[in-house]
Design brief:
The structure holds two protein chains of two kinds. Chain A is of the alpha/beta class. Chain A is built from 17 helices and eleven strands. Chain A has two domains: 188 residues, 3-Layer(aba) Sandwich (D-Maltodextrin-Binding Protein, domain 2); 212 residues, Periplasmic binding protein-like II (D-Maltodextrin-Binding Protein, domain 2), CATH 3.40.190.10. Helix content of chain A is 44%, strand content 13%. In chain A, α2 runs antiparallel to α13, α8 crosses α16 and α9 crosses α17. The longest helix of chain A is centred in the last third of the chain and has 20 residues. Chain B is an all-alpha fold. Chain B has a domain of 175 residues: MetI-like (MetI-like fold, Orthogonal Bundle), CATH 1.10.3720. Chain B is 74% helix and 0% strand. The two termini of chain B are 33 Å apart. Classes of the chains: A alpha/beta, B mainly alpha.
């Protein structure tokens, strides 16, 4: 009898462990530290989490000197940031101020967890006018007060190794997508583990950004005007095919890249001369330099576009990328939180931080600073103003990134292990992603 | 019976001291309940309340629009279960597939962990020099923090700089270019790491069980000319049955629910072949931000495990009685 009771208890305990989701708490009263302390979640902008802490700490100390408010800083890696934000939203155990990917603005706005920026809040952070017009386009859904303001400006470009180009006798960066593939093939020597390109195949955010831009080039959209998903449009399949082909049929990307979860892995391929090119955002420069390359060792060009464009195709080679900053609505120190937002978006801090992170200022006064007039940053600025399109500002946007991005990650895995990943497989993957999204809505 | 007899006989001679003695050594009646209360409270807090909350959430339309004030989320009735159980839809089909993979994973992990544990326990049953060192060594994977152990496996299984590929490639067994964490190999890798984690527990439990088998049984068997294998089949296995009944079930439940190993090995990018149920539920919730459907999947998992347990226990107990 006693044994049976023991067994039953043991089994009950083991079985009960299988409802893991219920650990959300309904306590939404307290957020962050009250009084003279603020909790701040920063995203990983530097070469590592530690590097972010190193860069931000002296600046936040300046803030403390000016205002008397202490800031508890935590830097959160990209692959868990969205989940941390959601958990914080559900539990109420949240920071006061936090960074978000600007493409998530409308999705997170829909949760109601963030403080809306109306005239009063804008005034508290130095006015809406100080921000660059283009950067304000990705701060929330149209027709509603935004729940985030821009912090760092980013855009995609093609980074290439000058030395590897010279060795292969290539004098110019590629101008069209066909040129890029041809150059990459010329640069690839699979036997010597040298490749024309590299990607972060296991990063869902990166994958989804390329799905968006190459889909646009192929004349497709991932959402219709009503905000309904249209993932399986032929142009989207073609766009994803164009990106995956770099590994599958063009064979200019090492299969190992299917295991790269972060852009830093991809940049390591580039700086160790394993790959001659990669498509990345401007803050990649900081990592390239910290890995030991100098500014003269690499060049930056706009990502080549299909030429001629397919019917309905648009000249898009980046989304309006960037980092925004938000304040949690439940913060007990909204005033202090807004002071921190004002501080980080002040012209002086914008110059310091964007320079260190290799990103672009989002306020006009800082953008004109001499530090941001380099050749490379001018290229990124031109991309942002001429050929970048904002990702749709709708509540479902972040689910597009997770479902499509992960489907592509799975397709990269298939390619790396020698399984087929052609049009049929891509279409099936996108169908699955769309159904998942519909089930979630 | 004995006590009451002595009490009755005692009453005649010296009633007072005999009557009082047992009372004074007895603790107050409420003491056991007080001692149990903290455990009960934590059991409620840690298991029962979250479980009931999970069941409640599975009936809510808990999407991104309500995640902040989730108690105000509208009711979805059984709608979330419809989605999770619709095997023609993408969500239901992938859930079913995940259940299948989890069964295969559990059976493989259970069989290997139990066999290894049994083998090692029998091997170390008789004293020999170095036995204690081996025992300690075998228990190391169980003593290590899961994260520390599994993250090392993740490094070892990497394609480009992993030790597994260097070793196999160096020995000429493979070309040293195998992806262990992608494609179908990911399943094998997950099983290997899970077995590495779990088998010391089987070993420990079986070793304890073996201690209770008297040595005379083996001596008598040896005198009668029974070999090692015969002794194992005729004495060791039957006498370990009560231990095995619980051990197998616990190993089954732990493997079926394993979240740590796949999560640490694959992070956000779980390959289709290693899409175990607990991580599937987690991913399904966070990918679409629909925590109602995620909780419905959790409840289904709970039901499956309860059914399996409910069938297994009476069946194995009857066999125990018959034996």
């Amino acid at each position: 009898m006693r044994r049976r009771t023991f067994s039953t208890a043991l089994i009950a305990t083991a079985t009960l462990g299988s409802v893991p989701l219920a650990s959300c708490s309904s306590d939404d009263s307290g957020s962050g530290g009250g009084g003279d302390t603020l909790k701040y979640w920063a995203s990983n902008q530097g070469t590592s989490l530690d590097n972010d802490v190193e860069i931000l700490t002296p600046e936040l100390e300046k803030f403390t000197q000016q205002t008397g408010i202490t800031v508890e800083l935590e830097v959160i890696p990209w692959d868990s940031l969205l989940q941390r934000i959601l958990s914080a939203t559900a539990s109420g155990d949240a920071p006061d101020v936090l960074n978000i990917g600007n493409t998530w603005s409308a999705s997170l706005q829909a949760t109601g967890a963030f403080l809306p920026f109306e005239d009063e809040q804008y005034q508290a952070i130095g006015g809406k006018d100080k921000f660059l017009e283009s950067s304000l386009g990705s701060t929330g859904a149209e027709g509603q007060p935004p729940t985030s303001v821009p912090l760092y400006g980013l855009a995609y470009g093609l980074f290439y190794s000058k030395a590897m180009f010279a060795e292969a006798g290539i004098t110019e960066p590629p101008a069209t997508w066909a040129d890029l593939v041809a150059d990459a093939k010329q640069l690839t020597d699979a036997a010597a583990d040298r490749w024309g390109m590299t990607v972060a195949g296991a990063s869902y955010t990166e994958n989804s950004h390329f799905a968006f831009m190459f889909g646009k080039q192929n004349g497709a959209e991932f959402f219709d005007d009503e905000g309904q998903p249209t993932f399986t449009e032929a142009g989207n399949v073609a766009g994803i095919q164009q990106y995956l082909a770099l590994m599958s049929t063009d064979r200019v990307v090492s299969p190992s890249a299917a295991e790269h979860p972060t852009t830093n892995d991809m940049i390591a391929d580039f700086t160790s001369r394993k790959a001659a090119m990669f498509m990345g955002q401007n803050n990649s420069e900081a990592t390239i330099l910290s890995n030991g390359m100098t500014v003269d060792d690499y060049g930056v060009a706009p990502i080549p576009i299909l030429d001629p464009l397919p019917a309905g195709g648009q000249r898009v080679n980046s989304h309006v990328a960037g980092i925004n900053i938000s304040v949690f609505a439940d913060s007990e120190n909204t005033e202090g939180a807004l002071k921190l937002v004002q501080f980080l978006t002040s012209p002086e801090e914008q110059v310091v931080l964007n320079q260190k992170f290799g990103s672009l200022p989002v306020v006009a006064e800082a953008a004109s600073d001499a530090a941001f007039q380099t050749e490379n940053l001018k290229t990124f600025n031109a991309v942002l103003s001429d050929t970048a399109a904002p990702l749709p500002m709708i509540p479902n946007e972040s689910q597009f990134e997770t479902t499509v991005g992960q489907a592509m990650q799975d397709l990269f895995g298939r390619i790396a292990t020698g399984q087929p990943a052609g049009t049929a497989e891509i279409t099936r993957a996108l169908e699955g992603a769309q159904q998942q999204m519909a089930g979630g809505a | 019976m004995a006590t009451s007899t002595s009490a009755r006989t005692g009453r005649a001679r010296a009633p007072r001291p005999v009557r009082r003695a047992p009372r004074s050594t007895l603790a107050p009646r409420w003491l056991p309940y007080v001692l149990l209360a903290p455990a009960l409270l934590f059991e409620l807090l840690v298991h029962i309340v979250p479980m009931l909350t999970g069941i409640y959430i599975s009936t809510l339309e808990l999407t991104q629009f309500y995640v902040r004030r989730w108690l105000q989320a509208p009711s979805a009735g059984l709608g979330n279960f419809d989605i999770a159980l619709d095997v023609d839809g993408a969500i239901g089909a992938s859930l079913l597939r995940s259940f299948g993979i989890t069964f295969a994973f559990t059976i493989a992990t259970l069989a290997l962990s139990w066999s290894l544990g049994m083998f090692a326990a029998v091997l170390l049953q008789r004293p020999f020099p170095g036995r204690n060192v081996l025992r300690t060594l075998f228990l190391v994977p169980y003593a290590l923090p899961v994260y520390a152990g599994v993250i090392v496996w993740k490094f070892m299984l990497g394609r480009d700089n992993g030790m597994v590929n260097s070793l196999l490639g160096g020995l000429g067994i493979t070309d040293g270019d195998t992806f262990w964490l992608l494609g179908d190999n990911a399943f094998v890798s997950t099983v290997v790491v899970a077995v590495w984690r779990l088998w010391p527990f089987a070993f420990l439990t079986l070793m304890a069980g073996l201690q209770s088998i008297p040595n005379e049984v083996y001596e008598a068997a040896a005198v009668d000319g029974a070999g090692m294998w015969q002794q194992f089949r005729s004495f060791t296995l039957p006498m370990l049955r009560p231990v095995n009944q619980v051990l197998l079930l616990v190993l089954f439940l732990w493997s079926f629910n394993d979240f740590n190993v796949p999560y640490i090995l694959f992070g956000q990018s779980v390959p289709a072949s290693a899409d175990l149920i607990s991580i599937h539920v987690y991913q399904a919730s966070f990918i679409t931000w629909n925590f109602g459907v995620g909780s419905a999947m959790s409840v289904l998992l709970l039901l499956v495990l309860l059914v399996i347990t409910a069938v297994y226990l009476p069946l194995s107990s009857r066999r125990l009685r018959d034996a």
